[in-house]
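Batch job 17 of 40 flagged for manual review because the log was empty.
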Amino acid sequence: MSKPSTAGGVPEELRRTLGVPDAVVIGLGSMIGAGIFAALAPAARAAGSGLLIGLALAAVVAYCNATSSARLAARHPASGGTYVYGRERLGEFWGYLAGWAFVVGKTASCAAMALTVGSYVWPGQAHAVAVAAVVALTAVNYAGVRKSAWLTRAIVSVVLAVLTAVVVAALTAGTADAARLDIGSDATFAGVLQAAGLLFFAFAGYARIATLGEEVRDPARTIPRAIPTALGITLVVYALVAVCVLMLLGSDGLAGAAAPLSDAARAAGADRLVPVVRVGAAVAALGSLLALILGVSRTTLAMARDRHLPHALAAVHPRFQVPHRAELLVGAVVAVAAATGDLRGAIGFSSFGVLVYYAVANASAWTLTPAEGRPARVVPVVGLAGCLVLAFALPVSSVVSGAAVLAAGAAWYGVRRRFAARS
């Protein structure tokens, strides 16, 4: 594996400061913030009463991906996640393709989360608020990963408190009706698969833990513990919230809801809870945005080290010990996208890229030997097949745009290799 060196005389090594609790919190901030307020309604439109089946299917694929990623991260504890695993286990091109899919897809996710913050905080000025959020959180990340971990812990605490309040209100409401669950009565196979692909967007936050592999203490122990812990907590939270919202709104009501948790609070007769839910949604999106910027900048760092991106982006700040140039570039690109774009389709686009990313992770895990901590063979097989099936079950526009971006990245890789061979 390539070693961190220097960029412009600045050391590239990152400091290992994160323990298991910090790594779990960063994963929770990514997963819970990204999905529970944004993905339930479009998934219900796709699957109808099969929403919970789609959630279970997404969880199975996410578990396989998490297990494969945890074993790989323990073996290759460097920033970059599947970019590093694919490069080391499958070859340079596959690592590059995974890194490209991650950076492009998650940059779009960053902009989507920033716009989510804007739409909840000040709907009339959503773009301006989104840009302000990006600038503020980029500054937090620039100041050091420990500060990011502390802020994420506070955000996760607020979000979990809000979701607990919604669940309690639903379970104590006289209007909640378990018959509304009606699991699978009007679901189609294609609809369930599409819902699972959309909901997978909400589970993908454990990648942040792997991409921070170079900043985790004792990664061989910490990462395999942190990833499944964060995923398990998130699954329990998602399942409870989804069941409660379905009992209050039914699958049709959920499919048509612009703000499903706010509508659920109203349906439960807890109108005073609605403003709290709005604040919780904004805080959750901030937590997701914080961790997303963190993860994208680390993958950018790893790709810059190998000169797939400009090598100047590999510099690490001598005081704050963060890839400051990569963070500033990612923040600037996301701010421009949040200021100018309408990214309502970003969930599908991002899901396609992330599923390709994890397909490479599962293929990489297949090459591990028993001595290297290889998972049971069924895990990477199910993970790889599940990623590919869910990726191509997404809306056609997401598949076409995602495939086009991946093809453009592959073409750039080929051009770069040709020029490198001639020089």
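Reviewer: the log was empty due to a logging misconfiguration, but the result itself is present. DSSP finds 16 helices and two strands in the chain. Unflagging and moving on to job 18.
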